[in-house]
Design brief:
Layout: H1 2-23, E1 31-45, E2 56-72, E3 75-90, E4 94-113, E5 116-129, E6 134-136, E7 143-146, E8 152-165, E9 168-180, H2 204-207, E10 216-233, E11 236-247, E12 256-267, E13 272-282, E14 299-311
Antiparallel strand pairs: 1-2, 1-14, 2-3, 3-4, 4-5, 5-8, 6-7, 8-9, 9-10, 10-11, 11-12, 12-13, 13-14
């Protein structure tokens, strides 16, 4: 597998070098870029309201979706950034994070035939992490279970790229992935990771299948990435990406990690938009769910909001 990955990397490097040479012959290749920035908020208040005992709550979510692409000769380079952060403040629970996302994606494709981008080879790079700490509030004191680059997923995959339409790309190939968990000194609530009851506390690194002595875990295996975007209606746009990877290092190719993100944008007028995002994640190494917090599970996240949005 490592030899295949090495050969694919060499092939991709040669093709990129050739594409760069061809770029010199192309006059001013243009970038196609754009983005949507949205701010959504909600506030509730009540007094002597039996069906809603929470007297005060306020929620705010900001998101930024960017894309910048370029096509020249046999080459196509697509890039996107998906960022989001949201907090909620209630009278009883206080300030808590409700959304946190940092997803950077780049894909370079090189067509086998000039002017035909239907089939070719290329390289994909992806970084996923979050901006700030996340906590498990079921314990007292609250327990930190995530943070910036804790975890972070860095993926590199050369392979075959299939583009049957301008708005759909399917890429298949080998991949190398690093699962990074930084900030080890803050992995425990208690000194030495031992609770007052004598029970051992699980470190943040071990939550994500990383050796607590190290800061990362290396994976290699088969990788599939599919992206699609379209206008569903005159004022409705949809964008989705599905990534799936089978880790051959653990000799269990049937265990497939999945990341699937979906974004809908509905324009009411020039400034007012309705946005809906729905993400699904499954990672067999993340075992913090279930009654005893030691099993893996499908993770789901959805955000529906109405607010001000600026397209550019």
């Amino acid at each position: 597998m490592r030899r295949i990955l090495f050969l694919a990397c060499v092939l991709s490097s040669v093709l990129i070098a050739d594409a760069q040479t061809a770029t010199k012959k192309t006059k001013n290749p243009k970038w196609t870029n754009g983005g949507v920035f949205s701010v959504m908020g909600a506030q509730t208040g009540s007094r002597n309201w039996a069906v809603a005992p929470e007297k005060f709550s306020i929620t705010g979510i900001a998101s930024l979706n960017l894309w910048f692409n370029k096509a020249w000769g046999r080459s196509a380079w697509d890039n996107s950034a998906d960022l989001a952060y949201g907090i909620s403040n209630t009278q009883t629970a206080g300030l808590r994070k409700v959304d946190d996302k940092l997803d950077l994606y780049t894909r370079y494709s090189y067509g086998f035939v000039k002017g035909n981008k239907l089939l070719g080879v290329g390289v994909i790079g992806n970084l996923r992490t979050q901006f700030s700490n996340g906590y498990d509030y079921s314990e007292t004191p609250r327990r930190r279970i995530s943070g910036f680059f804790a975890p972070a997923y860095l993926t590199f995959s050369p392979g075959i790229h299939f583009r049957p339409a301008k708005n759909f790309v399917l890429a298949i190939g080998p991949a190398a992935r690093w699962v990074i968990v930084s900030n080890n000194p803050y992995s425990y609530n208690y000194q030495g990771g031992v609770k007052p009851t004598g029970e051992a506390e699980k470190s943040i690194a071990s939550i994500y299948g990383v050796d607590p002595v190290k800061t990362s875990r290396f994976e290699t295996g088969a990788f599939l990435s599919a992206t699609y975007h379209a206008g569903i209606a005159k004022n409705v746009k949809y964008k989705t990406r599905l990534d799936a990877m089978s880790n051959f290092v653990e000799n269990n190719p049937g265990n497939i990690d999945v990341y699937w993100t979906n974004n809908f944008t509905m324009s009411v007028n020039k400034w007012l938009k309705v946005t809906y995002s729905y993400d699904i994640v499954y990672d067999d190494d993340v075992k913090i769910f279930g009654e005893h917090k030691n099993t893996a599970a499908t993770q789901m996240r959805s955000v529906l909001g109405v607010g001000l949005a600026v397209g550019f």
